[in-house]
C-alpha cells in the first residue's frame, strides 16, 4: 500500500529525515518509535504533505502513485489520514459541520455524490457509539475548549467517519488517561481491516498493549535503526533507546 | 512536493475581482454636475415636492455649506469634489407598471445577473421588494398584501406626496440636518429611498427588502430611508446592494432613520457589496452612511450588517435608547481586502433607565486593507442600571493588513455595567493544513474558518439573507479562480 524509498526531507534547510525506507501492506499495523527529535512527527507530516517540509530525495508512493506533486488535500482524497499530535481549534465550526465538509469534499474529489443527511446521521450515530462520544460534543466548536483526551478522541472519530486507507496516528496516546486510551485503542482496532493500514507513532510501549503492531521500527536521527516484531517494543520499554544509538 | 505558503495565499486573495461588474444600458435623465441652491430646487421640483420639503432641503443645503468634511476616521482618500458630481439621475422611461412584462428588459437582465429576479422574489419567500435603481424606484411588489394590514412600504418620494404628515413629523427627527457633513448633504439632495410605516400593534408578516444599486457613471447616490414602527408593532427590514464596476470613485451618502415607538421592535439587516475598487485600489465606492434608530419605552432595535464592499466605509449604525427598558443591538461582520478601508462600528446612547445594549463586531482583514472598529457606549446621568456588553474580534490574513479597535466609553451614572471584550487572531497555516489534511482545499478551508469566525453575527440574519451573506464572504476572500 505505502512504499517509502530513501526519503530525505528538510525543514528550513536542516535535514531531518536522512533516508527512510518503509514498506507497508494492506491489513498491517506498523509502530514507529524513537526518542524525542528523532524525526517521527516529521515523517508523519511529510507523508501528509505539509508544505514547510521539503523532500530533497526519495519517494512516497501510495498504491503505485507517487505523492510528490500532490497537495495535502489531494493526498487526503487518496485516503491518507493523519491524527494530529496537537489538533487545532477552529472557533465557530462545529465538529459535525467540519466532518460533513471533509466527507463531501473528499467525495466530490472522487466524483461521488454528497452524502445524504440520513446516511450521515446514521454513520455519526454508529461511530459516536463506537468511541463512546456524547452527542452534545458534536455540536461544539472544533477542538475549542476540548480537553487533551477529547481532542484525541475527536481525531479518531474523524478517522472513523472518513474511513481512510492509511491512517497515521501521531502520538495519539499522549494526553490520554488509561480509560480513554482503552476506548481509543478499541475504536482503532475495530476500524482496522484487511484493506487498510495503520502507522502508530508513539514514545511508549503502553499504547501497543492495546493496538498490537505487526512491525515495530525504531527511528533515530532521521533513520530507521532497527525493525522487528511487536516484542521489540517490549525490549525498548525495558532497555530504553540508548543501546540502539 | 507542491507548496502553498502564506505568500501564495496572499496572492490568491489579491486576484479576486469584483463579480458584479457590469453596466446596464438604460437611457437616463441626468442633471449636469455641480451643486447650488438652484440644483436643490430643481431636484425638489423634478419630484413635485410640496414647498415644506423644498424648504427643508434648502435649509439642509445651507447647513451643509457651513460644515467641513470630517477627517477623524482611520481612513485616507482623495476627498471628492462635490462640484464635480451630478446630483440627480432617473431612468428616462419612467414606468408606472402593473406587471413585470412592462419593465425594461435591460433592467430585468440586470436583476438576473444579480440573481435577484423580481419574478423569483415574488413567487418564492414572500419577500416584498422595493427596488431602487438609480435613485427612482421602478418596481414595488407585494404592496397589496401590506396595504391590507395598513402597512405603508413605498419610495420615500411617494410617501412625501401621500403621507406628508408622517414624513414631516419624522424626517430628520433621529438624524437632524445638522448631524454631520454627509447627513446634511443627503438631506439637501436625497434622490429617493424607502419609506415604511407599521401601524400600532401590527406584526409585519414578511421581511421587507430593498435592493440598492448605483448604475449611472459619476452619479452620487443619496438614499434616504425612514422606517417607523408604531406602538407595539414589529418589522424586519432587509437592505442589500451591489454596484457595477467602474473607474472613478462613486460617492454614496445615505441616511437611514428608524423610529421604534413604545413596545415596538425593528430588525434592520444589511448586506453591503458596493464595488470595492480593483486590486490596486483604483475606483470603488465611498460609502459615508449615517444610520440611527430611536427607541422609545420598551422598544428594541437590532442592526445586523455584513459589509464586504466599498473602497472606503464610514458607517456607524447607532441606537438612541431614549425610553426606559429599551434595547439596542449591533451585530457586524466587516471584510476588507486589497486596498479597502473600513471605519465602522456603532454608538449606543443610553438615556432611559434599565436600557440594555449589545455589540458584537467581527472584522476580517486581508490584502493591504485596514479595518477599524469604532464604537461609543454612552451612559447618561439618569440612565440607572444601564447595561452594555461589547465584543470586538479581529481576524487577520497575511502580514500587510491592519485591524484597529477604538472603543469609547462614557459613563455618567454609577449604576452602569459595561463590559468590553476584544480578541485578535490570525488564520494560521496550522489551521489551513489541518483542514487540507481532511480533504478540504484552501478556498473551502478559508471559507469555513471565516464563516465560523462570523457565525454569531450570521446567525442573526434572516435565513435567506444568511445564505447570500455567506456566499459573499466566500467570494470576497477566496478569490481563488481554479
Number of domains of chain A: 1
Radius of gyration of chain A: 18 Å
Please identify the oligomeric state: heterodimer
Averaged pLDDT of chain B: 81
- Mean pLDDT across residues of chain A: 92
Q: Helix fraction of chain A?
A: 25-40%
CATH architecture of chain A: 3-Layer(aba) Sandwich
What is the total tally of β strands of chain B?
23
Shape category of chain B: globular
> What is the CATH T-level topology of chain A?
Rossmann fold
- Low-pLDDT segments of chain A: none
Largest interface: A-B, 38 and 28 residues
Radius of gyration of chain B: 22 Å
How many domains of chain B, as an integer? 1
Helix content of chain B: 25-40%
**Strand-pairing-aware structural class of chain B:** alpha/beta
Report the strand count of chain A.
12
What is the CATH class name of chain A? Alpha Beta
Termini separation of chain B: 19 Å
**Total helical elements of chain A:** 7
SSE sequence of chain A, one letter per element: EEEHEEHEEHHEHEHEEEH
List keywords for this structure.
heterodimer; A: 245 residues; alpha/beta; Rossmann fold; six-stranded mixed beta sheet; four-stranded antiparallel beta sheet; 7 helices; B: alpha/beta; 12 helices; SUF_FeS_clus_asmbl_SufBD_core (chain B)
Topology:
The complex is a heterodimer of chains A (245) and B (482).
Chain A: E1 2-11, E2 14-24, E3 29-33, H1 40-48, E4 53-62, E5 65-66, H2 72-77, E6 80-83, E7 90-94, H3 95-109, H4 117-130, E8 141-142, H5 148-162, E9 166-170, H6 178-191, E10 197-202, E11 215-220, E12 223-228, H7 231-239
Chain B: H1 6-14, E1 28-30, H2 37-46, H3 51-65, E2 89-91, H4 105-114, H5 118-123, E3 128-133, E4 136-140, H6 143-148, E5 152-155, H7 156-162, H8 164-170, H9 181-189, E6 194-198, E7 208-213, E8 224-229, E9 234-242, E10 250-252, E11 255-260, E12 265-273, E13 285-295, E14 300-307, E15 312-315, E16 318-321, E17 327-336, E18 341-350, E19 356-365, E20 370-379, E21 387-396, E22 402-411, E23 417-426, H10 429-437, H11 442-458, H12 463-478
Parallel strand pairs in B: 3-7, 6-8, 7-9, 8-11, 9-12, 10-13, 11-13, 12-14, 13-15, 13-16, 14-17, 15-18, 16-18, 17-19, 18-20, 19-21, 20-22, 21-23
Antiparallel strand pairs in B: 1-2, 3-4, 5-6
Helix pairs in contact in B: 2-3, 3-9, 7-8, 10-11, 11-12
